[in-house]
Specification:
The complex is a heterodimer. Chain A contains 5 helices and 10 strands. By secondary structure, chain A is an alpha+beta fold. In chain B, helix 15 packs antiparallel against helix 17. Classes of the chains: A alpha+beta, B mainly alpha.
């Protein structure tokens, strides 16, 4: 589709040196962008097998997408630098290039193929993180304005009722199946350390699976706007060793619901910082601090 | 005096408003009395009914229905002779006017007023979030601020401002004297102030404004205080406005094109609004339905979404997103049209791959209806739906990519006039690419499971809607400002506006990607201490972003009042709206154009888009060239 009219002088096609230089700069910029993408501390600590898989997916996405942004930006900047109107060119027009079928097929097919590959990869990850595993412990999660309640259906107290807690205790390295409910509006049960969340929906049971793999305490956050106290609808996940978990169960199993009632967290109105939410690897005192607040 | 009060106009509309409230009282008292309620005067019931009756009373008073009423009762109607066209004084902008150019200006100015208000709400939100433990407002007010911010930006700014720009330029571009249904056009506009005042008025409701987000998920919205009803009903009026306008555009485009204007000779802005209007007429009834469900749940206890009474909570989300995902494209496709106009003219080159540009718009329309559940990946919907929705969501990036690459190819070897509209267009391409990239990331379900409902989403949506839509709106407003006002804007101020906005936009929204992945949820009035530094930076940047808009407002006002007079075709563009004077004559074309070629034949010697039957009124430059070449 080169112009042959020749009555007005058009911009010459771009020369090879410039192409090489711009390509080189683009490669360097892509490399720097990807490097930056790996340097930024994106994620909070990972505490489940699923989290590592999802983090890897994200870094793959960084590697794939940074060059695309660099490509688009380079062409914009190159055009602005090389082909901006200069004095004396006020009446000049560009070459009347209407299209190029080959090019258009390429930039439809290539992104389509790239996206197809990403979708297949993501679908495999999605399948892997949801796989059922033996020796799974089932935990009931109930959202209620504005707190979380956890039940352990496999572990009953003296009265035959499942153990209930307001902070989540999980044994390390044992797969968990969360069964999530809500008693009022929609909440979302998000464990950033697992990279997983699912809504608690009135009327139905939802859920997801995770396998904790790192000891420590991590936040549990409601991400679905659920009213006045949404901001402070948080609690703590404690991943403990199997023996510590047994001890915790024993303490709770035999002292019954009375004790768990005393672990109610504070009211919605207090600021997060005042309640000890300063960061994501909390702070040894969180549990005891909230315990001391007692029932409202 | 009586005659003046009886004449249609704003004063009659305001006088009629109390009648609407009175009617609401009467309806509620009669029905509650007849049904044997002990408590007959119920404020909540009256308020909800009044929110339906009062707007109609106001619109009838204003005169929006005069013609149809005259026709219905058999009185002689005044035929539309276009005698009311044009605005002679500023007062003409405050009454029912059937001129598409007046309505276009009404739309754009009204929308920007809401842009400023909703932007101010965002700045107030950033005051609350500047430091952890913020005490600026309480949690309920904060929830109200972001809910009203989003609702106004979507329903009172982005959607209507595009409708306004298209209202002004689209009939001109296709060589039509007006829109197909001028009276419906006027009604469409006047529904917007009703919707806007209702949404803003919710702040005065007992219990505060609606505070369940612009998404208004049930059952939070069905159990919220009365402020929620302002959203439920306000959105109905904005939606009705949108549907009526879209119908109008469709009929106008299909039936009123000038001789020779085949579909593939239409400028891409016309294609974009054709596509958008298809989306609106098919999708917008769904949000109307979702809000009617909520209204019936709230007002009359229908229990659509009450799980304890057999209701289905996820139903709301499915119906809502069946509109609200296409709505994302309703808020983007017209911008694609604007960018195509600006880039072709300012790069002095034909649009690269014109037909693919048109087809990709249609592809987005079709695909846009197949992706809604990607907003529900974590909603608890059946798990198998995730895979097909991930595939369709990712595929929709392909036609969008085609558009980006075609714009880049249009820039290639052009003669780039790097003035304000072009800067916004080039800024749009880069910023929108970032929004598209985070969109593809979010389509990948496992990643979405982590960042759904976090600040990553806030970042993504603002790169798409601010870096995308708003940048195109600014490009369009600067580009057509000479045509709409007959004056030139100040170029230096325009550049300042662009660069300050670009910088502070990125400083505001780029860090939100990071804090979102790190674990900060959205829609919270407080956050963990570890996010304090980023949030303080974001707050300062957002205030600067807000202030940068003042440069724009100042430029627009001062230039409109006293800018240099604009010539008919300052950009040497080929499309029809530039072949008439600035501002255009009252009846658009003093002589009928005949379209003889494509709209973007820049660089083709002697090429023309249209010729006029008698050359008398054709202005200089492109038009004159057209005449010269066709007479040979």
């Amino acid at each position: 589709m080169e112009e042959t009219h020749g009555s007005t002088p058009h911009r010459p096609p771009i020369d090879r040196t410039t192409v090489v230089r711009v390509l080189g700069l683009g490669l360097v910029a892509s490399a720097l962008g990807i490097g930056l993408g790996f340097l930024i501390p994106w994620f909070p600590p990972a505490a489940a097998k699923q989290a590592h898989t999802i983090d890897t997916l994200y870094y793959v996405l960084i590697i794939v997408t940074v060059p695309i942004f660099v490509l688009v930006t380079s062409v914009v900047l190159l055009s602005a630098w090389k082909w901006r109107m200069r004095p004396g060119e006020e009446r000049l027009d560009g070459p009347p290039i209407h299209g190029n079928t080959q090019l258009e097929v390429i930039w439809t097919a290539l992104p389509a193929a790239l996206i197809a590959a990403l979708v297949v990869y993501a679908a495999i990850v999605l399948h892997d993180i949801g796989v059922k595993k033996p020796n799974t412990i089932t935990i009931g999660v109930t959202g209620q304005q504005w707190e979380w309640r956890f039940t352990y259906p496999g572990y009953h107290d003296a009265q035959g009722k499942p153990i209930v807690a307001l902070q989540l205790y999980l044994p390390d390295n044992r797969p968990v199946n969360f069964r999530i409910h809500s008693v009022d509006v929609i909440h979302t049960f998000w464990v950033p350390a697992f990279r997983l969340q699912e809504d608690a929906v009135p009327g139905i049971t939802t859920g997801f699976r995770a396998t904790p793999d790192r000891l420590g305490s991590y936040p549990i956050i409601c991400t679905q706007l659920c009213g006045y106290g949404h901001t402070t609808m948080r609690t703590t996940l404690h991943i403990v060793t199997a023996s510590a978990f047994s001890t915790w169960l024993a303490e709770h199993g035999y002292s019954g619901a009375a004790q768990t009632a005393s672990v109610r967290t504070g009211g919605a109105a207090r600021s997060l910082t005042a309640r000890g939410w300063t960061a994501y690897a909390p702070i040894g005192g969180t549990h005891t601090a909230t315990t001391k607040e007692g029932p409202q | 005096m009586i005659a003046r009060l009886r004449a249609p106009g704003l004063h009659r509309g305001i006088l009629a408003t109390p009648l609407g409230i009175g009617l609401a009282y009467a309806i509620v008292l009669i029905i509650r009395g007849a049904s044997g309620f002990g408590h007959v005067v119920d404020g909540t019931a009256i308020l909800q009914v009044a929110m339906i009756t009062t707007p109609f009373a106001f619109l009838i008073g204003l005169g929006a229905f005069d013609y149809w009423f005259y026709w219905a009762i058999g009185r002689p109607t005044r035929p539309e002779d276009h005698s009311g066209h044009g605005a002679r004084t500023w007062k003409d902008y405050f009454r029912i006017n059937t001129d598409h150019k007046v309505i276009g200006v009404q739309y754009v100015v009204h929308s920007f007023a809401y842009f400023m208000i909703a932007g101010l709400f965002a700045m107030l939100m950033r005051v609350q979030l500047a430091q952890p433990g913020g005490k600026f407002v309480d949690a309920n007010t904060y929830n109200g601020l972001f809910s009203v911010h989003a609702t106004l930006m979507i329903f009172l700014f982005v959607i209507p401002v595009f409708a306004g720009l298209a209202n002004f330029v689209l009939p001109l571009m296709i060589g039509a004297p007006d829109m197909a249904f001028p009276r419906l056009n006027a009604l469409s506009f006047w529904l917007l102030p009703v919707a806007g005042l209702m949404l803003l008025g919710s702040f005065f409701a007992p219990g505060g404004s609606f505070a369940s987000g612009w998404t208004a998920y049930a059952p939070l919205s069905t159990t919220a205080p009365i402020g929620q009803a302002f959203f439920t009903l306000g959105v109905q009026f904005a939606g009705a406005s949108s549907i009526a306008t879209a119908l109008n555009f469709l009929v106008t485009i299909i039936t009123m094109r000038a001789p020779g204007m085949s579909f593939f000779r239409m400028p891409l802005l016309v294609w974009a609004n054709f596509s958008t209007s298809l989306l609106v007429v098919i999708a917008t009834p769904f949000i109307a339905a979702s809000q009617f469900f909520v209204l019936l749940d709230r007002g009359l206890g229908f229990n659509f979404f009450n799980a304890g009474q057999g209701g289905n909570v996820l139903l709301y989300q499915n119906v809502f997103w069946f509109y609200s995902h296409p709505a994302v494209y309703i808020m983007m496709l017209p911008g694609f049209g604007i960018i195509s106009e600006v880039i072709a003219v300012k790069a002095r080159k034909p649009i690269f791959g014109y037909r693919m540009m048109a087809f990709s718009l249609l592809a987005i329309v079709v695909l846009g209806f197949t992706v809604w559940a990607h907003h529900m990946f974590t909603s608890g919907m059946p798990g198998w739906i995730r895979d097909p929705m991930m595939i369709t969501t990712a595929i929709i990036a392909v036609p969008t990519g085609v558009k980006i690459f075609s714009w880049l190819a249009t820039l290639w070897r052009g003669v780039l006039h790097m003035d304000t509209p072009m800067l916004w267009a080039m800024g749009f391409i880069t910023m929108f690419t970032l929004g598209g990239i985070s969109g593809v990331m979010l389509a990948m379900v496992p990643f979405d499971l982590h960042v759904s409902k976090t600040y990553f989403i806030v970042a993504h949506i603002h790169y798409v809607l601010f870096g995308g839509s708003v940048f195109t709106i600014f490009a369009g407003v600067y580009y057509w400002f000479p045509k709409m006002t007959g004056r030139m804007y100040d170029e230096r101020l325009g550049r300042w506006h662009f660069w300050t906005t670009l910088i502070f936009f990125n400083l505001t929204f780029a860090p939100m990607h990071i804090i979102g992945i790190q674990g900060m949820p959205r829609r919270v009035a407080d956050y963990a201490l570890q996010f304090a530094t980023w949030n303080l930076l974001i707050s300062f940047a957002s205030w600067a972003l807000g202030l940068s808009t003042l440069i724009f407002v100042y430029n627009m006002i001062v230039s409109w009042r006293g800018g240099p007079k604009a010539v008919a075709n300052p950009w040497r563009a080929l499309t029809l709206e530039w072949q008439v004077s600035s501002p255009p004559p009252i009846f658009n074309f003093d002589s009928m154009p005949t379209v003889v070629g494509g709209p973007y034949e820049y660089g083709v010697p002697g090429a023309v888009h249209a010729v006029f039957r008698d050359g008398a009124d054709v202005p200089a430059s492109a038009g004159a060239l057209a005449m010269a070449t066709t007479k040979e």
